[in-house]
Every structure is written in C-alpha cells, then in structure tokens.
Amino acid sequence: MxxxxxxxANQQAAAAARLKRRHLVSWAFEKACLTLTLSAVVVLxxxxxxxxxxxxxxxxxxxxxxxxxxxxxxxxVKSALYGTxxxxxxxxxxxxxxxxxxxxxLEEYAPTSRLTRIIEINIANLAGVPSIVYGILGLAxxxxxxxxxxxxxxxxxxxxxxILPVIxxxxxxxxxxxxxxxxxxxxxxxATQWQVVRAHVLPEALPGILxxxxxxxxxxxxxxxxxIMIGALTYVAFIPEGPMDEFTxxxxxxxxxxxxxxxxxxxxxxxxxxxxxxxxxxxxAVAVYIRYRGTRR
Amino acid sequence: xxxxxxxxLETRDVYIxxxxxxxxxxxTLPIYEKKITAIIGPSGCGKSTLLRSLNRMxxxxxxxxxxxxxxxxxxDLYAPEVDPVEARLRIGMVFQRPNPFxxxxxxxxxxxxxxxxxxxxxxxxxxxxxxxAALWEExxxxxxxxxxxxxxGQQQRLCIARxxxxxxxxxxxxxxxxxxxxxxxxxxxxxxxxxxENYTIVIVTHNMQxxxxxxxxxxxxxxxxxxxxxxxxxxxxxPAQKRTEEYVTGRFG
Lengths: 297, 253
Known about the structure:
The complex is a heterodimer of chains A (297) and B (253).
Chain A (H helix, E strand, L loop, with lengths): L1 H5 L1 H48 L5 H5 L12 H32 L4 H13 L4 H15 L6 H25 L3 H9 L4 H30 L2 H5 L20 H9 L4 H34 L1
Chain B lengths: L6 E12 L2 E12 L3 E5 L6 H7 L10 E9 L2 E2 L7 H7 E4 L10 H11 L6 H11 L3 H4 L12 H13 L5 E5 L7 H14 L4 E5 L3 H7 L2 E6 L2 E7 H6 L4 H7 L5
Helix pairs in contact in B: 3-4, 3-6, 4-6
C-alpha cells in the first residue's frame, strides 16, 4: 500500500476515485431529499383527493346557509362557520397584541438576566403543552372563575393561551433577525428606543411576525380538544351575535359528523373539511398579500 | 502643540470593562475641535471600544462597565442628568461596515432630522448633506431608490451624509474604510479634509498610511493602554516610545 502510494499515477487515480465517490454521495443526498419531499406531497394529495371526492357534491349554498340537522339533506355548517370566524377573529385580537408586544419587550427591552432566560425557556416549554391542558385551564379560569360561560369569548381566550407561545417565539425570531447594525445606525442619529422599534425593527420584522401569527391562527382553527373541554356545543341552531354568545366551530361539527354511523354524514364531514380548508387558504392569502405590500414599501 | 486648540471632548483615566475584563485601561486623551484625531493600534487594542464610549454607544452592549470621566465641553457625558439621545445628536457616528437603513436614499438622510424635529427645509438639508458627503451628483436623480442598491463606497458616503444631516459637532468614525476598495477609500479621505473645516472628527483605523495622511493628531493604543499621543507628524516621524516606532514602521502589528 505504501509502495503504491509513492507512485504519482496511483495517487492521481486514488484522488479521482475519491472525488467520484464524493460526487456520488452528493447526488444520493439530493435524490433522498427529493424522494422524501415527494412522498409527503403524494400523501397530502391522496388525502385531499379523498376529502374532495367524498365531500364536493355536498358543497353548495344550502350547505353553507343551513344549521346542523339530523336530516342529511338539510344539514349545513352555517353556525360552525360563523363560530369559527368569530373564534379566529377574537383570538387574533387578543393574542396578536399580547404576543407581539411581549416579543418586542423580550427582544428589545428586557435585560439579559437569569429571569429573562427563565421566562424565555418557559415560553418555549408552553408551546409543547398538549392543547387539552389549555382547555382544562380555560374551563377553570375563563368559563367558571370569570363566569364567561360557554361563550365564544371564553373559547377565544383559551385559544389565545394555546397559541401565544407560538406567536411570541416566532415574533422573537423575526425581531432577532433584524440586523443590529440598523438599530445602532438609528441610535447614532439620536433615535429613542421607541423610534428605533417603530421605524426600523417592526417594518423589517413584520413579514416574519405575520408568518408566525398566521401559522398559529391556523393551528387555532383546527383545534377541537380545548373547545370541547370548555363546552362549545355541537348542536347550535343560531349564529353568535356577540362575544358572549354560545358557539360551535368547524372542527367540532366535523368531529360530530364523523362520529355518526350513517355514511352520508361522513361525506358531510368531508364537505365541512373543505370549508375549513377554504378558510385557512383565505387567511394565508391575506398574509401573503400583507407581506407582499410590506416588502415593497 | 496645544497652541490655540480648544478641547471639545476629553477622556480622563477611562477604564472600560467587558464582563470584568478591561478593554481600555486608564486612557486620558484630549480631542481638539475641528481637527482630525486618529486612533491607531493593533486589532483588539480597545480603540473601537474607546471610540464608542465617546457617544455612549457602549450603552447597547451588555455587561460593559466604565470608570473615569468623559467630558464633552466640560460636562461629564455619563452624568445621570445627561440624556444619551441628546448626546448622540451632537456626536454622530459612522460605522465600520456601511449600514444604511433598508429605505430610500432620501429617507436615510432625512430620518434623523425628522425624528428629532430639526427645523428648516428638509429637501435642502438632504441635498446639503449629500453634497458634503460628495454623493449628490451620483444620486440626485434617484433619491427614491433603495439605499441598498448603492455600491459599498456609495453606501458608506450615504452613512456619512446621514450623520452630517444632523449637523453634529463631532463625528466618530470606526474604521470607515475597512470594507471599501482603494478608490472609495481615497474619496472618503478627500472628504475628511473638507469636513474638518466644520466638524471635529475622531477616526479609528488600523491603516497607518491613512492615519498619517488624514489626521492632525494621532493616538497609539496597545492592549487597552494609550502608549503615545501627539501631533501626527511627530508620532510618525519622531515617536517618543519604542513600541510606537515599531508599530508605525510596520515591524509588528
């Protein structure tokens, strides 16, 4: 072996072989990534196809404008759709200011102390707490202690608890991604902390913050467990007219339909899922639009 | 050398520590009005730290403690009643890397005066600052373009214009040419000569030719200690300290 390595021609051959192997590894990695990505897309595609083939023929104006019913032909998602829209709007109103201002405080104002670190670690831990736990908390504090009953406000406050950690963490990341050189430049021309945040940090971080908020709200839209816990009803034959009204939401309605024995109701559930997806897509579209406008400035 | 110069800034026995470790050790240094003072020395000698203390930019770095006095026109810059925001209005700064705001050229220059409510015609102020920074001719037709589309040298001149628009008394420059090519560097050096008519400039540089070309006074620091301070010509031709001589002649550092 040592003898062979002394030969320049052999050395060259060995180097060429090594290079070939490195290219092979590089190629294999790319293909592995591609395969796994495709498999995820395929599974999603199958899921969507199944939902659409089951539910699309139930999807019409009647379905959107009817309250739930024990007759398949008369049943609809009106109360669930309005309930979800109420829930998401209120949740956004509550969690957005708290989450974003909390993130701004932690990133821009809080001293780097042990206490700050403990708070940050705990926020990260809270993001991993099962949603049912937030449901129990909401039941004990909002529904019972604060006497909000089974209102959409109690639901929104519970959902806000659930998604606040996600909003804070993603907003913190977005704020941290703003280069500190921009902050220093602003301070150097005599800006106050508020002026730096308002004119430079927030506009730069806004796209990232919005992405996090939308992801968090998307999670809230799909959550069922905490709503069942705080007693959101499955049969609601009216739409909420204020934050103190009782409500139901799309995932609860879907869950209810899937747990019935009749096959038609399962198809109805699929139609409900399509409506839920449509709401989600609309929210994402709004976020993309705001981000687009934000970056054009 | 102390003929008719008036001292605008002065450090007195200043110690600056990061988490207890001293980066600047007992520096006493006068800064003369409408002169260019260069601070030279090897990397990590504490020259940038000292510079940042002159307009309280060290306030933004955690765990920095400071002892000694820094006097600005006779008052202690670190006295409790001094508002650091106001101090930075009088003492502007240009950083090592060009750091324009990701906004239009106009907004970059106008933002500081706007938030501070400075009086007068803003368009005129922007134009004057850009002319002083020798950038006006290149950008006058595209003031609404993003500052990020400018070249590195143009961006740094924009940052100088941004500082000038505040009409400060002192401009601190932290290795302003280290990220620039020789042509841009030469332009900025020419600019410094014009600026010292009206402004006091303190420039940190590790480029000794630059220090000897542009400055009136030179301070040489090493390991946080001010080794030598004096007239630039004297420091470069007849240094009093052996270490200074070794450094400026390129025998180390």
